[in-house]
Amino acid sequence: MRNICSENINFVDWETIPYAQAYQQQKELFEKALQNKAKGQIVENTVVFCEHPPVITLGKNGLLSNLLFPETVLKEKNVEWYRTDRGGDITYHGPGQIVCYPILDLETIGLGLKEYIYRLEEAIICTLAEYGIRGERVSGATGVWIDKDTAGRTRKIAAIGVRSSRYVTMHGFAFNVNTNLSYFRLIHPCGFTDKGVTSLAQELGHPIALEPVKIALKRALLRELFEINTTSKD
Predict the structure, then answer these.
(1) Choice among 50, 100, 126, 190 that is catalytic
(2) Whole-angstrom Cα distance, residue 71 to residue 78?
(3) Neighbours of 162 (CB within 10 A)
(4) Known catalytic residue at 50
């Protein structure tokens, strides 16, 4: 486990970790944050980066009909399956995808939930711009998209699903970097049947090193969530 620290926020990289283990660890951070807030104590803001082995998760308001194959097929493909308590519908996590779990007290940093999601999107959009790709928002659909105005070409590169209680957050976003996109054929990604998915590697035509993407995301998150500007490469 590697820690990437700044003076105002703790960035932690859990590297490759099973979904269930990551959920338990972020839940512990979430519960500790809630307890500290209830006591009037300082809440430690933590942003987790990680990757998961292949797993499909369904949000609390998601539709099971968006899972296109029975669990037996998932087991044959070594894909785990979980219902979870985040917002959003169904999605896939797997190797080559950067998953980010911010455990933050939005109240102390002056953000409402809607603005928080907007700023997560903005951090991803800014990161894509560093690679020469234009990321966009789609009305009524959280996440970051490419070619939003081109019929039949609109594709999602990052999905967002969060949970909050007393303005403390958990869950977050999944950014496709080198993700094997064939796994998305097992589902209607995020509940959409008329839009596709993509990855940074697919858009650029070659594999992408994950560490520089994480560094770019860190800079963007510090700027968007905490208004901290940094040019550090650490």
Answers:
(1) 190
(2) 10
(3) 21
(4) no
DSSP state of 153: T
* Alpha carbon distance 7, 135 (integer Å): 29
> What radius of gyration, in Å, describes the C-alpha atoms of the chain?
17
Cα–Cα dist 149/82, whole Å: 33
Q: Closest Cα to residue 117, out of 228, 224, 6, 215?
A: 224
| Per-residue pLDDT tens digits for 154-213 | 999 999 999 999 999 999 999 999 999 999 999 998 888 778 999 999 999 999 999 999
Query: 198, 176 in Cβ contact below 8 A?
Result: yes
Residue 7, class by beta-carbon neighbours within 10 Å (0-12 exposed, 13-18 middle, 19+ buried)? exposed
- For residues 112 and 107, give the distance between their C-alpha atoms in angstroms, rounded to a whole number: 7
Return the percentage of the chain with pLDDT > 70, whole number.
95
Q: How far apart are CA 25 and CA 136, in angstroms?
A: 32
Angstrom distance (rounded) from CA 169 to CA 104: 5
pTM for the predicted model, two decimal places: 0.93
Note whether 159 and 90 are within 8 A (CB): no
Is the pLDDT reported for residue 4 higher than 60? no
